[in-house]
Amino acid sequence: MTTAFSNPRKILVIIPTYNERENIHEVLRRVLAQSVELDVLIVDDNSPDGTGNMIAAFAQSDKHIKLLRRPGKLGLGTAYIDGFKYALANGYDLIFEMDADLSHDPDEIPKFIAASEHAHLVIGSRYITGVNVINWPLSRLLLSYFASLYARTITGLPVRDATGGYKCFRREVLESIDLAKVKAGGYGFQIEMNWRTWMAGFIIKEIPIVFTDRTVGKSKMSRAIVKEAVLLVWKLGIAGLFKRRKLRMHGGWQPIN
User: First and final CA of the chain: distance in angstroms?
Assistant: First the structure.
């Protein structure tokens, strides 16, 4: 399977927002200040604080800022799915996931791009070189760390940070996945996208990042998101057993949907 790019890449950074007015200006400034040319797609869930209106004003004066408005709070997973569909429809080659609260350092973008030369999905890992998380309470850190360990153990997914949300997909990955079948949100969405990428036979690479918890605004984590991920992991684990058996019966690993 060929991995290296031979042509210039068209790059899109997808950032879902809900009440991120206090953060989004600085996020956009730092993303667009990178040495590579890229576009940013804000997927806003009708933020009551006016985040969408602020982005609409920015987009009028900067062609690299795009806005996708949604009618209400529909969840992180569906926000990224809508962003992926936009990216595919508009010819982007590299598609990033990034949080809106500066927990993901925009200055790491060039490292993701370089790694994507030889991988189809690049994951910014908080745990591949120890624990690189700043400002999280111990309870949140343990939940995240053991959620990734749990997902890896049950599914066999060869990823240290299965729940991380700073990622870069090559378009062929998203083209190969039936996005209509991806239903999870939050932790579960990240695990499921990693799993579907792996099951399709693509190359996944983790690069180390430092995750810094938000200092402004409110976290969107909830018990429902954690419960969804716990149940999803078992579904993926069982489905993976059947797929791996099917692959062995057909003599090897080929990209599948």
Answer: 16
In angstroms, rounded to a whole number, what is the distance separating the alpha carbons of residues 10 and 18? 26
Q: What is the pLDDT of residues 164-205, one digit of tens each?
A: 999 999 999 999 999 999 988 777 899 999 999 999 999 999
Q: Parallel, antiparallel, or unpaired for β 94-97 and 167-170?
A: antiparallel
How far, in Å, CA of 24 to CA of 63, rounded?
17
Place of tokens 């959620």: 147
Separation of alpha carbons 124 and 168, rounded Å: 9
Q: What proportions of the chain, in percent to the nearest 5, are helix, strand and coil?
A: 45, 15, 40
Listed in sequence order, the DSSP H helices in the chain are: 21-32, 51-61, 76-89, 109-115, 138-155, 171-176, 186-199, 223-249
Query: Closest by alpha carbon to 166, among 132, 125, 201?
Result: 125
Structure tokens at 116: 């994507």
Tell me which residue of 199, 202, 195 sits closest to 233, measured CA to CA.
Answer: 195
Q: Which two tokens stand for residue 244?
A: 């791996």
The H or E element containing residue 38 is none
Q: With 0-12 CB in 10 A as exposed, 13-18 as middle and 19+ as buried, what is 31? A: buried
- Tokens 């200040």 locate to 33
This prediction has a pTM of 0.86
> Strand 11-17's sheet: what is its strand order?
65-69, 39-44, 11-17, 94-97, 167-170, 121-125, 204-208
Looking at domain 11-249, which CATH architecture does it have?
A: Alpha-Beta Complex (3.90)
